[in-house]
Amino acid sequence: MPVVTPDKLASLQRHASDVRNICILAHVDHGKTSLTDALLATNGIISPKLAGKIRYLDSRPDEQLRGITMESSAISLYFSMLRRSAPDAEPEAKEYLINLIDSPGHIDFSSEVSTASRLCDGAVVLVDAVEGVCSQTVTVLRQSWTEKLKPLLVINKIDRLVTELKMSPAEAYTHLSKILEQVNAVLGSFFQGERMEEDLNWRERMEERVQAAAAKEADADATTESGELQFQERDDEDLYFAPEKNNVIFSSAIDGWAFTVRQFASLYEKKLGIKRGTMEKVLWGSFYLDPKTKKILGQKHLKGRNLKPMFVQLVLEPIWTVYQATVGGDQGRGDPALLEKITKSLGLTIPPHIMRSRDPRLLLTTVFSSWLPLSTAMLVSVIESLPSPPVAQAERLPEMLESVPGADSVDEQIKDAMVSFKTGPSDPIVAYVSKMVSVPESELPHKKRKPGQLTPDEARELARKKRAEAARAQAAAPSAAANGIDDLTTALEEVDLDGYAPEHEEKEVDPEHLIGFARMYSGTLSVGDPLWVIPPKWSPANPNASPQPKQITVTALYMLMGRNLESLESVPAGVVFGIGGLEGHLLKNGTLCSRLEGAVNLAGVATLGKPIVRVALEPVNPADLDKMIHGLRLLVQSDPCAEYEQFGSGEHVLLTAGELHLERCLTDLKERFARCDIQAGAPIVPYRETIVRADEMRPPANKDLGRGVVVGTTSSKQVSIRLQVRPLPADATDFLLKNGDPQLIFAGYEVLDEDPFWVPFTEDDLEDLGELADKENVAKRYMDGVRRKKGLLVEGRNVARDAEKQKTLKR
């Protein structure tokens, strides 16, 4: 596919129904960036041969070095596919714009996942076919559930089942089924938790109604006729992933192939004479193909025959055969005869020079990219399964707007414009800025070097050569003047001083600029428009409270193209974009509105996790203190999770989410923002909430709470804990003592300190512990200790009578 120009992408932004805003979510090292590379290759941004290797969206050097993504990056992709406007109409090419955001998978950068998911309408969730559901998989699934994103499941790295685990197709099918069950179990837990919360809220509302009716001495039966007292059960049928619903993709990003059940259903529709709709329903699950009658059988009709499931026979076995023909066999050389047979049966045309290639990986990727191209399966599924911005906003925003700060005070016209997806010039403008991105000035579109323009280094080198020529001309000036020719003047006129800098001067530092990473919800935004910046803690219900909104003028609009930015004149609703003019007016995230009265605050819907790792900073050179403070402020603005504190003692403290996040922040601070040497202290992780025993921490007595009741508040002031303590009944205590572990029964005995110079010398000790006391007969020690243990209750505690045996028990 040829390279798509920015003007072409900008024109597609005007057709909201043909736009898809998606983010790629997964656990670390599950293949997000490799999958993204394969999609970028379809637009000619990178070579298909480099897909999965170049990691294009990982623009930071430390990302390339570690092989993990640390910052979410966005890029706009073009895709064209044949669609029918009617069942009997001829297919026509239809163009789509896909705004894709690649997010990190490491737990230290979970805040980047939050910023990415808020801007999107759908999520592509990747799961490693070998590792299955991991901790961050659950986290990103919960994030997509919270943001009401439509998910699309991709089971990636299926090639590892063939090449590493050496599974058969039948074993791989069982393994994939278990992974699918694990993912659906996670979604089911979210659904049950939400359903229980809704049930609790419903019961509370009903109790309030009954109490209100009783206070008014009304008939309780009359209140039940309001039509809302019946709890409405939610249907979870469309909640789960199922291949027959075409919301599951099986792929290998590194080998460049992917497929859905629908693709194979279309392939076998002609060969088996079975309708595609029927094939989509039976290709996954306990369905079998009778080899004689070519009929589809269920589990009940097997009658003891050992038939393979259709997914194994018709889908996995052909894929396994391709691996065997390309990278299988002796020493991984494949089977050329089998490969030729496969290409003929599939109707594939492989160039002769690739067929003769000694690189089996090249042959493998060429066959799969011709048969099951990854980009086609992915982008077609995104377009068909994930909603467009108008559809997504109509589904997501009503519930989101109910939970914003001061929801009742938000202007109804603003709500209607967002839900109804209005883009007219007179409609209110609402945009959400999820984070601030730091960009070097040289990478801004208006600062980029034009074709043919010299770089500063080239200009300095050219100036040096011109000066040398001028010096030679000056040496020859007396003789030249006699001939009436002023060669010195001529030479000086030819010197191009544009970009000139003396060699002894330092190179000019490339300053950093902050632009907003945003999503439009309503209206059309243009360069030069005035906007109100709504801070996260502002509420329209209390408009005079601080912090107060600020008015800014939009200085620039950008299309985000990974490492590059492209200038835009205007941005319609439903588009992910970059915005300039917010520097110094917005700290991390916020809402942009064209009206202040009744404005909506989208930044207050959800809060990010607080950083827990703190480190003290100081410049190596005390004269660089101002540079460090300025750099810390820029860092905090550009990182959605980092925080900066300055104590009264003068200590400067940086707070981050983890050690890897801390390392990235320190690198950015030294190399980009402060540009000076900084010394960091040892990282400290404070305990925020725990239980300790100390008399000085006894809470004050409260007569209203009653005896044995304590109420406490966490340090974040967001959670209150009410704890009531009562003694166990005597029967329960006696039962526990009679049936408790013998070791627990002696838990009240005082354990004497161990003598550090003690060595085993008795026969029993030598047998149990050895001459060096480096071994222990655990079973014998346990039984002997319990059998020989004796004690006497003295003043409320037990004192061991045999100190040596007590010491042995402790060892």
From TrEMBL:
It comes from the Eukaryota. Keywords: Elongation factor, GTP-binding, Nucleotide-binding, Protein biosynthesis. GO terms for molecular function: GTP binding; GTPase activity; ribosome binding; translation elongation factor activity. Residues 471-482 have a biased composition (Low complexity). Residues 17-278 form the Tr-type G domain. This is Elongation factor Tu GTP binding domain-containing protein. It comes from Colletotrichum higginsianum (strain IMI 349063) (Crucifer anthracnose fungus). One of its GO terms (biological process) is cytosolic ribosome assembly. Residues 463-482 are annotated as: Disordered. PROSITE patterns: G_TR_2 (PS51722). GO terms for cellular component: cytosol; ribonucleoprotein complex.
